[in-house]
Amino acid sequence: MDEKVKKLIEKPLSEKNIKLCSVNYVLEGNTYFLRITIDKEPFVDVDTCVLATEIINPLIDTLEDEFDDSYVLDVCSQEKGDK
Asked: Is the whole model's pTM more than 0.85, yes or no?
């Protein structure tokens, strides 16, 4: 699933100078998360996360049948120390 999502969203994000760092579909407690980590120079601010979410949401909706359970979309920044 992670690779399908990555292939779907990487180019549209790149067109807005947003680097896709990772995609992880994980279960935490009773909740599934689709966690997408992004980066952008010089930094990722709230507006960048909002823009990325607006790009990602309609694309992910095309894969709705691929997900077995409902999930929370979590778009977050990569910390500079994690490179």
From this structure: yes
